[in-house]
Amino acid sequence: MAQKKIALACSACGSRNYTIGANPNRTERLEVKKFCKFCGEHTLHRETR
User: Fold this and answer.
1) How far is CA 47 from CA 1, 42, in A?
2) Whole-model pTM?
3) Is the distance from CB of 19 to CB of 3 less than 8 angstroms?
4) Three-state secondary structure call for residue 13
5) Phi, psi of 35, rounded to the nearest 5 degrees
6) Which CATH superfamily is domain 5-47 in?
7) Which residues contact 43 (CB under 8 A, 6 or more apart)?
8) Closest Cα partner for 11 from 36, 27, 49, 19?
């Protein structure tokens, strides 16, 4: 069975740069500082649904 994928979107420009596997036990949206290649800096990326 394939795992459901969720995208991480940059909070500054809105581009969806990263994908992660969905976790049904997580109740809040994941927020991680990652590098955005469009902004050129480390920004906060939030889980989209």
Assistant:
1) 22, 16
2) 0.83
3) no
4) coil
5) -85, 130
6) Ribosomal protein L33 (2.20.28.120)
7) 10, 11, 12, 13, 33, 34, 36
8) 36
Could you tell me the residue ranges of all domains in the chain? 5-47
Q: What is the pLDDT along the chain (49 residues), one digit of tens a residue?
A: 788 999 999 999 999 999 999 998 989 999 999 999 999 999 999 999 7
| Residue appearing with tokens 């809040």 | 28
Q: Residues 47, 31: contact at Cβ < 8 Å?
A: yes
Tokens 């991680």 found at: 32
Encoded tokens for 43: 């920004």
Both tokens assigned to 16: 């969806």
